[in-house]
C-alpha cells in the first residue's frame, strides 16, 4: 500500500520535526540545525542532527536518518503504515481508505476500535468501582500484582450477567452486531438477540503495537464456574489476528529495543509479573507456539529471544517448536528453566531476584535440548544412542549457521562418545532428505563458471558522479527539477535508474522525495546524502536561492561528466562484442587491432577515474 505524496506532505507540514523529536530527546540549537546525542546508539559527543527547514534528521555516528516517519519507525519499532497512522492521528490528518483491501473501510474500523476502547473502560470501571472491587482485586493482588501494574495493563472485570456490556454499548449508540463482530457478544441460537461473551471473568485486554485494544483474554474469576474453560479468548476478527499479536508488545517494545532481546512467556499474568520486577522486554504468546508473524515483530527490536515456558509436557513441547522456528529465522535462542510446577508469575511473587537470576542464566537452546534428550534416553545402549541422534538431528536441521551447527555436532559426539565424522554424515544426509522433501534443489558443487567479461562494471568515477548527482537531487527540490530535465542520453538515464533512490527522486516532482520512501535503510541513505550536501562548505552558509543556484551549476557539471563516462563504457561494451566476434571468426589481425583500441579507451577511462 503506497499513500499519495500529498498525504505524507500534509502530515509533515502540520508536525514540526524539532518538536516531535524533541519529545523523545533533548535537542540544542547548533547554527542552522539542532543537535543531540543519538537515541539509537551510545555516544558522548552529539552527532545526531535535525534540519528544521528540510524536515530531516541524520546521525553521523550510526548513519541512521530520514524524516519524521523514519524517526518514529526507528524509535517506536513500527512499520511504515503504523508510523503513518500514529502521526496522522497526532497531526489530525485523515488517511485515505485502504483501497484493494476488502473489509478495511476506515469508518467501520474506527467504530470497532471505539467499541473496544469503550469496553475496556467499562471492564476497568467494574474492577475498580463495581462488583470486582472486592474479590477480583484481592485475587490479583494475592497473585503478586500491584495496583500500578493492574492499571498499566488495564485489567478489568466482566460482571456475571447476560447483557451488562451490551446494554452499556447500546446506550452509547453502538449496535449489538458490531459488538459481535469484535468478539464481545454472541448471538442466541435460533434467535436474533445477543448476549455478552464474557461473564464473571477477569479481563486482560490485548493491544496492537500502537496501544489500541483489539481483543481480550478472559480468565474465569476465582470461585467462578470452573467447569468452563479457564481462559477464553476473543475470536479472530477484522482487528484481532491471534498469530500476529503478542500480549504486552505495546508496553514492551521500548524495553525490547534497548535490550535487543525479547523474553517470551506463556501467560498474561507472567508478562505482568516480569514487567513488575523490571523485565519490561517481556511478551506472551497466549499459550501457543510462536508464529512467523510474531517472530517478525520481535525481529524489529533485536535478534535474541529467551523462551520461558512452563515445565510441563505441553509447555516443553511448545518451547521446542518455538525454538526451532526462531532458530530457522536466525534468532539467537536460549531457554529459561525453572523447577517443575513453577511459573514466572509465582516466582515473581515469591522471589523476584531469583526470577531475574534464572532469566539471566538462560541456556542456549541447542544445549538445552541436547541435555533433555540425554536425560530422556539411556546413552549407554545402542538403542538409546540411536534415539538421541535422531531427536537431536531433527533439531539441528533448524540451525542455519554451519559453524554453529558444527559446534553442536561436536558436542553431541563428545556426549555420546560417537565418531564426529559419522554424525556429520547423518546430519548432512538429513539435510538432503529435507531439501528433497520440501522440493528445494540439492546443492551441487563445481558448477561451470561464466565466461570472464572484459567490461563488467561502470568506472569508480561514474559511480561517484552518480552518487553526487543523487545527493543534490535529495537535498533540494528546485535543483532536482532542473537536473532531471538536463538528462540527455538514454544510457545515462538507465545508469541513474540503477541507483535505488532514483525512482523516488523521479516520482517526487516538486514534493519531498524522502516522504515516498518506506524502507528505513533507504530513508537513512537519502538523509545521509542530503545532510552531506547541506553541511558541505560550498552550501552551508548560503541563502536558499543561492544554495539552489550553486547546486544546479555543480549538478549540471556532474551530469555532463557522467554522460561522458557512461558513453565511454558503451563504446567498451561494443568493442568487447566485436573482439569476441573476431576471436570466434579466427581473425587475429582484427582482434589485435580492436584490443589495442580497447586498451587505449580503457586506459583513458582509468586515468580519468
Protein described:
It contains 27 helices and 16 strands. Strand 12, helix 11 and strand 13 (282-284) form a beta-alpha-beta unit. The strands form four sheets. It has a five-stranded antiparallel beta sheet. Strands 13-12-14-15-16 form a five-stranded mixed beta sheet. The longest helix has 42 residues, at 544-585. Residues 98-103 and 444-456 have low confidence and may be disordered. The protein folds into five domains: 5-91, Zinc finger, CHC2-typedomain (DNA Primase, Chain A, Alpha-Beta Complex); 106-239, DNA primase DNAg catalytic core, N-terminal domain; 249-361, Dna Topoisomerase Vi A Subunit, Chain: A, domain 2 (3-Layer(aba) Sandwich), CATH 3.40.1360.10; 369-437, no CATH class; 460-608.
Outline of this structure?
This protein is of the alpha+beta class. A hairpin with a 2-residue loop joins strand 1 (28-30) and strand 2. The longest helix has 42 residues, at 544-585.
Count of helical stretches = 27
Bulk shape:
globular
Straight-line N-to-C gap: 42 Å
Q: How would you name the oligomeric state of the polypeptide chains in this document?
A: single chain
What low-confidence regions span 5 or more consecutive residues with pLDDT below 50? Answer: 98-103, 444-456
The pLDDT mean sits at 85
The largest β sheet comes out as: 5 strands, antiparallel
The largest sheet has its strands arranged as 1-2-3-4-5
